[in-house]
Fold these 3 entries.
Entry 1:
Amino acid sequence: MCAATGYSGPGQRGVVLVTVLWMLVLLSLMATGISLGGRSFVRQTLNIEQGYRAALAADAGISWALWSLQPGPQGRWLADGSEHELQLGEARVRVALFDESGKLDLNLAPSELLDALLEPAIADSRQRAALVAAIEDWRDSDDLVRLNGAEEAEYLAAGRDKGPANRPFRDLIELAEVLGMNERIYRSIVPSLTLSSGVRTINPQVAPYAVLMALPNASDGVVRSFIEARRSAWDSALPAPPLPFDAAPYVSERGAGRNFTALSEAQLGRWTRVRHGVLIERRASVPRVVRSLLLLDDTAGDDAAAQPGDQQGDGEGGYEQ
């Protein structure tokens, strides 16, 4: 009896060849996936490490600002938001210190100063008046609507699920919830606002540009010259110059030197930027951090484009106080 022998026809050989080719393709895809996954993991690890280093540098900037508030240090800063720069290894750190007495207190600011502060962001006077009235309706304790203002009925009609708080603002971020407020307007005015001064006036010796421009009789050239003069006087240990225009009754130096905001930005390489901010209270000449601020626009890693710092002594970007 003859033994049967296996025979593979052309069709079977073709199936085997196609199967082998598909296996090679799958193995190639698996290898590519593993390689890409490894590179992605390495990149994520480097991003985390970069962010951590930048955060440490930003913390060092906050410590630098606290040092400037200690009794008797040489080179104590004028807390008007002027920028101070420090190089820590590969990190470039920029720090600004603001005396809160130079800002408008959101809970106490007169309507005319709020209107003037909003003018660069809102050209329409009726829109400004409505937003100012809505702010005042938020911070007062009654439910009576002001002319052009907003109480619960207006919020519900606009699709909101609740009305204003009818109490003083507790956080600056609450300002974003006021009817008529949007992100652009919020970002433009929040650097000029505080909840810490406790007075209706502003201290012109530390007020930033935008706040000084909100005062009556202010003009761009005069305000800029005044800011330069007061910084020069501080650096030379000379008496502060008087405000060169009449802004009564909206200015006084009450509350100066007690409450501060410190903002620190660390830039590491091209892509990593970390910003830290704190509220500082100084009592009996001893400064201490009382609260951290939630800052906007922190970036870290290859997926976020670095941007230049936005606190140049005239403002510090949006934050929650």
Note: Confidence is low (pLDDT under 50) at residues 298-317.
Entry 2:
Amino acid sequence: MKWRIRREKIPEKINRREWLAGASLAALGASTFSGCGGKQAAEQPAQSEAPLALKDYQPRSMRLPETRIERSKYPAIDFHTHLSFTDRNSKPERARFRAKPDDILPVMDRRNVQIMVNLTGGYGAALEESLNYWQKPSPDRFVIFTEPWFNRITESGYSKFQAEQIEKASQVGAKGLKVLKTLGLFLRENVTTGPLIKVDDTRFDEMWEAAGAAKMPVAIHTSDPEAFFLTTDKYNERYEELSAHPDWSFHGKDFPSNRELQEARNRVVQRHPKTQFVVLHVGDSEDLKWVSEWLDKYPNMHVEIGAYRRAGPPAQNGA
């Protein structure tokens, strides 16, 4: 039996490499059915293992050579620390300390850290406890900031009360005001229920002005990484983190967007030019060009570059 081979012209749109690849596949297909009576070749190989579950993903760091700096060349100021927090369940509120000065001071000396700023010094009785514990015994090593009484937002005359508390805090020794991201993301009209209170709510105008009058800088944490405001899906760069901690997501519900929070904070800075604002964590904005524009526009704005990594506490405690 003779086989007739028909010569076909290769289409111009297929290049030589594509044609060779096609020819190879054709040859492979022919071999599959070769053998006795056109019997099909051996069975297909077994399916590969199931994809790795995200919960089982434990990457190992591929380290490059690094230079460890054990001690700062120049005396340093650690502007962003949380040496204490306020126990709001106590009546009156009490300060809770994360360490003892006798434990912290030797570390500071080894690292050449001259001063540590404890931003979360609290308010009222808790503030006085923090001042007595850290700042007053070592005024050249520890600096304490106060915080707003957010849990009294429902009270009549809150604006005036909060401004007066800033003045009192300054008088007893507090050096600045710390505002957590509670404002804008957690504080509501009934403290924990009702609509969210915006960062630029005018009820806080007297507080911002009082801080400026007392020469107290305002360290303000607004928003969170932008990915926390997006859908938690395969395109989210923090999918692994948000899958492990879904309560860190601010996507949907009644939460403002990352940009809305930033813009509200910027309106506060613009409204109070005599008050100095330090936007923490580079303003929680990954858009450095935008951050640069803020600094050009608002002479009373400063940027702090501290990073932070959560290891488990709820998002509300991020500071």
Note: The longest strand covers residues 76-81.
Entry 3:
Amino acid sequence: MAEAEVRRLHLWQNRIEAEVEVSGSGKPMLYFHGPWGLDADRPFVKRLADRHTVYAPKFLGTSRDDPNAIHVIDDWLDLLVYHAELIEKLALTEPSAVGHSFGALLAAEIAAASPSAIGKLAMVAPVGLWSDERPVKNWMVLSDTARRAALFPDPDSAVARQFFDAPKDLDGRVDKLAKFIWAQACSGKFVWPVPDRGFKNRSHRIAAPALIIWGAQDSIVAPAYAQDFARLIKGARVAMIADAGHLPHLEQRPPNFSKGCGSDPEPGPRIRVIGNFWIEAGIDDEARADHGNCVSAARPIIQ
């Protein structure tokens, strides 16, 4: 895949310069990254871009040349209107929208605010609901060791090391750690202290076919929230990913099938994107033939 094109958009009365990375070719897809910044999600974006033109906006304050943008917008309504303005500027027609964690909530809120703007919706481990019996764990206040264990069922896995480990050279190390911390601070402004901004009051407006994806071992946002979101979004389907935590889109390798049916030793996404957005048992005919009854067929939700 060719290197992503970076589009710079002047928004919000020219007070914000937004960066949107555009990659791949095919039907348009918006990708809203998680709390750790776009860099952390690049392996997944790369796979999405195999068959889509992916538009991945960097969240407020995380564009390299405009860190102060995070101070321009302070409330949830303005944040949603800002993203609507960004999508209008991109001039996309019914793009699919995919997001992870906080980015998944943004995607869902946009789909609720403007039902005709989004063609299909995929939410990976979204925040946005709250139950006192299942409090969402604040990843920002955890120690490095505790955060690592909370995000990944296997904190020593190759994917966990790739996610957390910084380059050995000083400049590269400082750059990665600074981006990592600052991205959490920027998104954290709108997530905490309680990651509930009233989405449940607007969720009925979502008209796009919706897929809710969750790691079965997520210890940041309890997997039981998947059914809570599904009840709020008419017709939503849930894909529960075994052996994955809060970052199933990074943890799992293609294809996903039962033990003893084969394996892929290389680290990387196991969520399969083959022509469409396939999840869990969603796999193409060629791969199904390779692995026989170890997987079952599923319809793609994002084409």
Note: The longest strand covers residues 16-24.
